[in-house]
Hints:
Elements: H1 8-14, H2 22-30, H3 34-55, H4 63-77, H5 87-105, H6 146-157, H7 161-172, H8 177-184, H9 188-210
Helix pairs in contact: 2-3, 3-4, 4-5, 6-9, 7-9, 8-9
Amino acid sequence: MEPVSTTSSSLTAAVPYAQMELAELVVLAQQDDMRAMEMLVKKCQKNVFLSLRQLLPERPDDIADLTQDVLLRMCRSIKSLRNINTFKYWLNRIITNRYYDEIRKKGRSLNLVSMDAGLGEDEEPRQTTRQIADDGPSPDEVTLGGELDDEIRKAILNLPEQFRIMIVLREQQGLSYEEIASLTDTSIGTVKSRLARARGKLQEALKPYLATQ
């Protein structure tokens, strides 16, 4: 990968802010370029909102405020990001930390539900027809109609919390197993087994709708 130039003028002279990659905007934002910061916020806002909405489905009225808080934290700490190529992971750490803050505020821990799975926490999942394959479309990418889209969202929201966060980080955010394990303070084996269970439950919930397509 070509290194991103650290000279603000060289970036802005060549490419309009709206056409810049996130890495370029991060570089400029770290140099106190407010227009770059505004564009970075604009490009990240929807993704942050959707993640929080899926993670906290019981709090629909608070998602907009929580989104703004995450984006504010991003802006305030942007200069602490040393490797701009890890921006996605870094932003997801802010999102995940904010999510855990809300869990702790309510005096709760993650709702640990077995979902009747037979896998041990660190057991490697075997590929079965009940799973949604990694290289298949993510839940947000399936657009077979408004009704099915709604059912996909409902199916994700009905997952227990510790499975839902795995699906959000993997399928929506596209993080690696290693990154998810780090963000959730679990092992890679646990990440894989929980994803396998979650995908199985999603496919089971969506089976009546997929069968008609």
